[in-house]
Amino acid sequence: MKYTKHLFGALLLAFAATSCVDNDPLAFDVQQPANLGSLEYLKDYEPLKTYKANPDMKLGAAIDAKDYSSQKLTYRLVNSNFDEVTAGNAMKYSSVVDNNGKMDFGTVKSFVTAAKDAGTTIYGHTLAWHSQQNNKYLNGIIADRIDENYVPELIPVTKVGERTCILVQSGDMEEAAWDTQFWLIFPGKTFKEGDSWSVKMNVMAEKAASSGTQVHKGAGDYLHWAAIGTVEFTTEWKEYSATGSFDGSMAGGYSIAFNLNDFSEANKYYFDDISFMVNGEEWIVNGNLDDPEGTENFVTKEKRGDIVPSRIVDSYEYTVMEEKPSIEEVERTCIMVESDNMVEAAWDTQFWLVFEGITFKTGDSWSVSMDVRADKEASSDTQTHTSPGNYIHWAGIGTINYTTEWETYTSSGTISAEQNGGYSIAFNLNAFGEANRYYYDNISFKLNGEELIANGNCDDPTGTANFVAKEKRGATVPARIIDKYTVEKVGGGVIPLTPEEKADTLKWAMENWIKGMMEATEGYVTTWDAVNEPISGQGGQYYDLWSADNGDPANNFYWQDYLGDEEYVRFVVAKAREYYQGTEPLKLFINDYNLESWWDGNKKLKSLIHWIETWEADGVTKIDGIGTQMHVSFHGNAETQAAQEAAIINMFELMAETGKLVKISELDMGYTDASGTSLKTNQVTEDQQKQMAEFYKFIISNYLSIIPEAQQYGITQWCLTDAPTSSGWRGGEPVGIWTEGYQRKHIYASFAEALAGE
Asked: Is the per-residue pLDDT at 622 higher than 80?
């Protein structure tokens, strides 16, 4: 093919701010760096989009929407080389929806206007995702409601605080405020008129109270009614500080008295981190109370008793008023195993899954699923035994985490050599250092696909052949199957939403979001990632969808946990089609990563295809296409690279078989050397750059040759330039078609030639 010379790719576009602002190639010269002579040939290439063998296929670029909308450098670069743009973040939920649910589509509208001006289409990314959601808002709208009419019953609760401090205990007031006193005393020193003083200490009391202070000579030898002010005590530690100077009435004193019977009820007073300075000199020794014998500055009279050195304690009891828990009875047949406070070891209380007549063999595959909860949050490790209590190996089926709500635990693996010959799994329930109750239901354990558990739903109260327990260091006996249990709950002042109410609320929020986005784009955006990255990469025959159970609920919001795995996608698709305003047919994609995974035989893609079939099984839902992200690397290890290339071919073949549109949605590439190290841009040789260029050509050529033309939606390059070291995405890696200075790379030529079918 003959290539007409254009200067665009040979220019350092960072210097282009003063050039014309249109869609024509930039027409000015800059000096080419001497070390780029090998790239001279790239001047002869046309803009990338001119090489498309399939004119209907979209060639796209991911960009920053605000940068593009400014219609400056990025705008010209993109429009010259690509015919479609994807906003990296601006069209995602968290970029539009604030903490109060208010939606701001200003950036989206500016983006659409800029694309219209250029005649460039937009690929919408994304309507639904678990990441980059406004978690605060979404969790807020499904949170428990406040019961305005609720009046809690409060009860005193004694707690223990670990802190080294002075404790002074008063009785009920008998005659005077000084029936109980605490002194800061300074033997050998005296207060002088005009001396400046400052005091600082941390104080608290079991009950809120106050104490006046006096100047004494020796403890109990009253001199003057005023000292360092009135000290306020609360039920929380707080700092008391004051400053002043001694007047004539205080002169000659050498102690400060705290009158602790001002409060007419028995109380406990605590003091810590005590400082008393006179004329800038510290008079307190052992102010942090680290020395339990260091009481030379601290004297106490408790309950009209003797004056003695103060008590230094390393912990203290205090009473707070808390809401009385309610006892709720829950009807559910399940296994309950009860532990006590830890006695000696984690195995003082145990639960076993037992499989008499079966033995584990090395290489056997296993999978487990069960519902679990506990009265208090805890965890238990698992072991492999022969008969219950006959330990053979420390590893079992993983560590089980228990919360106060029922949750499903799942795991799978293969039997190791160390587990060979075992036939029971032990749960060590005394790892938690407090008495607890553990519950199990809907138990499944499969070995080589065969179910070994009978009565897994616990419906038969006598069906304990597979369940054995040892409670509180007792005998090993059949586990207890119960039909109800009690739960202590506080917070009766709230009304939780039912699962149905949560689903309805979130559907309302999702509908508002989709409606708002469709109105903001005014039908100009005809193709969308309806749902982004739904497949977890975890599960059995087919991978599960992402959820709080297998994901990161602290940072993500899993709509599917509330709407259901099937309804979630069906609802999004339905609302997108309902509110779409365009005249062109709306195309909706499911987009995901690692679909080219060689390590699991493209299982993630197979799972996605399965899920699409499931969503479409209602006869109403229609998914138009599949997006494969392809954030790949060229591997210097030849075996790995060959496996990756084979999996890419398999991916395209599987996608073609679906009859769906196929899009390479987020293509970029790094370089991983033979040792497995990801190289930075400044580490990549020219030969390695050429290897990457050939890999680009491999990907694009196979896409065009394997995917039927009618199914070729397009290819979107995710990174235009190599990533700066500060980038949050593949920082410092050679992921672009252009360098950071907007110099064409060898990749440019391979990209063009592949598009042209060469």
From this structure: yes
